[in-house]
Amino acid sequence: xxxxxxxxxxxxxxxxxxxxxxxxxxxxxxxxxxxxxxxxxxxxxxxxxxxxxxxxxxxxxxxxx
Length: 65
Fold this sequence. Notes:
65 residues; mainly alpha
């Protein structure tokens, strides 16, 4: 996942890269609890790094999960 994020994801649209990365994490399901929260964090993290959007849209002050 790290190799994808640092390699091929750089040449993809940020939304597509975020979706692929988050899906990959949920698919391997490494933890008993918290996979959904981390998958949403990965989406927000990739979008915040690669897309010029307002930061408060990605990181709400209150979790909505």
